[in-house]
Amino acid sequence: MIFLAIVATLFAGYGTAYLASDDVRYITRAGLEETRILRAREPIADLVAGRERDPVVRQSLRLVLESRDYAARLGLNAKETYTTYADVGRDTLLLVLQAAPKDCICPYTWKYPIVGRIPYKGFFDLDAGRRAAAGLEGKGYDVYLRPSSAFSTLGWFNDPLLSTAVTRDSVELAALVFHEIAHNTVYVKSATPFNESFAQFVGYRSAESFFRDRGDSANARTAADRLHDEMVLGEFYAALVDRLDTLYAGKPDSAVLQEGRAAAGAWAREQLTGPVGARLRSFRIGTLPERPVNNARLIGATIYRTRLDLFDRWYERHGGDMGRSVAGLDSLVSGAEGDSAFARLERAVAP
């Protein structure tokens, strides 16, 4: 995900503002955390060569370096991302908050310098995240508060691999590297679904290529299956959002709204335990069908799965060459903001 810890590295002499402004306190905490993370960095190459770390961790770190190098060969702008490692000393890096009205699939947004409006906010202070979620819920919003193990500064800093992001799942770890490096390569202001869906596509498609070139057909197939499932789920969530949009467009009163959301939830359960679930290759449905409709959670689910088919068609039109595909996309969306990026891409891949 993109969580830009807007680090001006701590302003001098703003004590009064710090006490009076939640925003200033938030930025200060983000700056402190980013500074702490940057200070904890260790070169991954040194850790892989040494014997001080757990062998499983060293193996994961070696995979990160190899994925990073492969990303650079593909033409992604790797910069210095993931050449270092930082142990954050806890299981949860930060909590990410999303919110939306109960009668609209329209995200509550926060405005940041440089990147524009973003439909989520990350909290290194976990209690502050919970308080913010409770505050929005008290105002009648659907809220979704989830943990996140990684974030990107879009290449502004030498983003280290964080201990919270290290996993024994080789496909997910490689896909994470490609995903975060993709953010260094193409970024559209105020277009979070475009940016995250692009990075999600690049993550799994590059992981498939990476493992195939290593002769690891099993992991290559797993990466392909996971991208397939992301696309299936993207279609499912788009259909669910369409149903809810139709409901909300009628401006229903509270009773009709509640009844309509329940009906949409029942339809979703039928799809997940029926035709949608039957198409999935690797994704485990688990308790997903039992979750009630929550607009904030829906926005969170769609951010990474919006029109993945467009990126796939663009990729195929460039001969399945990731470097050419990404370079061409960067030119295509140059100067775009918000939804105009998807509009350009859709026109470009139209039959």
Describe this structure in words.
The chain has 351 residues and is mainly alpha-helical. The protein folds into two domains: 155 residues, no CATH class; 131 residues, no CATH class. The protein is 56% helix and 9% strand. The chain contains 14 helices and eight strands. The strands form three sheets. The chain has a three-stranded mixed β-sheet. A three-stranded antiparallel β-sheet has the order 6-3-7, with helices on both faces. A two-stranded antiparallel ribbon has the order 4-5. A hairpin with a 3-residue loop joins β4 and β5. α4 runs parallel beside α6 and α7 runs antiparallel to α8. It is globular. The N terminus is likely disordered.
Keywords:
14 helices; 351 residues; mainly alpha
- Reading side by side through the largest sheet, how are the strands ordered? 1-2-8
Number of domains: 2
End-to-end distance? 32 Å
Sketch the major β-sheet. 3 strands, mixed
Category by helix and strand content: mainly alpha
Mean pLDDT equals 88
Q: What is the element string, with H for helices and E for strands? A: HHEHHEEEEEHEEHHHHHHHHH
Rg for CA atoms: 21 Å
| Strand coverage percent | 5-15%
Low-confidence stretches: 1-20
Tell me, what's the shape?
globular
| Strand element count | 8
Put simply, the count of helices is 14
- In helices, the fraction of residues equals 55-70%
